[in-house]
Amino acid sequence: MTVIEDALVNLIMLRTEFTAEEYAKRHHGGYLRHKSRWLSIGMERLANEKS
Which residues contact 44 (CB under 8 A, 6 or more apart)? Predict the structure, then answer.
């Protein structure tokens, strides 16, 4: 069933010209990925400052 749902979502996104950037803004995976990326960069900087 998931494959059919994914195909329908992709079709609707194409027809409504819904971009990947808009999807990322609204999808929890996009939000969490963005947050975790910045957290990881911040942690790297802290580690570099301490060494």
Answer: none
pLDDT band at 33 (very low <50, low <70, confident <90, very high): low
Q: What is the rounded distance in angstroms from the CA atom of residue 35 to the CA atom of residue 9?
A: 25
Question: Which pair of structure tokens corresponds to residue 19?
Answer: 């971009």
Is the Cβ–Cβ distance between 35 and 29 less than 8 Å? no
Which residue in the block uniquely carries the two structure tokens 């570099």? Answer: 48
Confidence of residue 22 (pLDDT cuts 50, 70, 90): confident
Does residue 19 contact residue 26 with C-beta atoms inside 8 Å?
Answer: no
Whether this model's pTM surpasses 0.85: no
Q: Residue range 10-30: average pLDDT?
A: 79
